[in-house]
Design a protein that fits this description.
The chain has 322 residues and is of the alpha/beta class. Helices cover 34% and strands 25% of the residues. The model has no long low-confidence stretch (mean pLDDT 90).
């Protein structure tokens, strides 16, 4: 039986800005097995990236503060670790592919130096050993002429190549958990397909667990084993990928799926849309967070927020099933 490598329990993150308290993540819980991929999906501002940065302990404090919850990685609570202990874990046991490689890579250092530093820091390799390993990693992520690329700077590479460099850097120390935050954003569809294929291939080869953060359900269908659908800081549905796509329960999940273009759709038929906007976190006072946009809203939705309950193989936060 696969080992549970990560367990997030009742995570809450608030941002304190002047006299406002913004609850960006509220009561998020999920788990991940070794070799498994979890897709976290939702619109911008729903708390996906804040959840990931909480796991990495990379939130800027202040204004952010983790106000409740536990993050268990291999039976150790990361929230109880010191900054120095977390530095040893980051990049070694847990790595992250950030959303925009051009801002994540240092423009004044060569590609080879940036990847080598990770291995020198965590694996005590010499510079020569680290450079040799860097060339191996670049080949692993299918970068041609790796011996030449290690001497180049980020601005000399295309977006797809920079993203491959970020993946090589994240995998340099064979981490047990890889967090990918929108790794295909701003890439064209051909490069996106190559990056997803690469991540899947490396997952099989290294048996790493992966958290894939995205707003694209097509990416989720391609790579995920389990899916957490987030809305306004909460998980509103949580299930295996087959159940999410074939038996969605929450009105928000159903709306997201119905908004996906279909190649067979008639030209005159409009895509279904989810009306309205995501509420700001500090505007949510009571009731279901999706109530202002839901076509199934009823009296109980207005005054009281539903809890996550099991409906078939799905966990759903909706009064329609209670």
């Amino acid at each position: 039986m696969n080992q549970e490598i990560l367990k997030v329990n009742d995570l809450g993150v608030h941002f304190y800005i002047e006299d406002r308290v913004i609850p960006a993540v509220d009561g998020v819980s999920f788990s991940l097995l070794k070799g498994e991929t979890l897709g976290i999906v939702g619109e911008s501002g729903c708390g996906k990236s804040v959840t990931a940065l909480s796991i990495m302990r990379l939130l800027q404090t202040p204004p952010a503060r983790i106000v409740k919850g536990e993050i268990w990685f291999k039976a150790e609570n990361l929230l109880s670790k010191s900054d120095e202990e977390m530095r040893k874990i980051r990049g070694n046991d847990i790595s992250m592919i950030f959303q925009e490689p051009m801002t994540s890579l240092n423009p004044v250092f060569t590609i080879g130096r940036q990847i080598s530093e990770v291995m020198i820091q965590h694996q005590n390799l010499s510079q020569k050993e680290a450079l040799s390993r860097t060339i191996e990693m670049l080949r692993l992520v299918r970068i041609p002429l790796a011996e030449k690329i290690v001497k180049q700077y980020p601005h000399q590479l295309s977006g797809g190549m920079r993203q491959r460099v970020m993946i090589a850097m994240a995998l340099a120390c064979n981490p047990e958990l890889l967090i990918a935050d929108e790794p295909t954003t701003a890439l064209d569809v051909t490069v996106e397909a190559q990056i997803l294929e690469l991540i899947n291939e490396l997952k099989e080869k290294l048996n790493s667990a992966i958290i894939m953060i995205t707003h694209d359900l097509g990416v989720v269908a391609e790579i995920a084993d389990k899916v957490a659908v987030m809305y306004a800081g909460r998980i509103v549905e949580y299930a295996d990928v087959s159940s999410i796509f074939n038996r969605p329960k929450h009105p928000y999940t159903i709306g997201l799926l119905e908004a996906i273009p279909d190649i067979d759709m008639q030209k005159e038929k409009r895509l279904k849309e989810i009306k309205g906007m995501v509420p700001l976190p500090d505007e949510i006072k009571e009731g279901c967070r999706f109530k202002t946009r839901c076509e199934y809203v009823r009296a109980s939705c207005i005054t009281k927020e539903p809890s996550l309950i099991r409906v078939g193989s799905n966990l759903v936060r909706c009064w329609n099933y209670i």
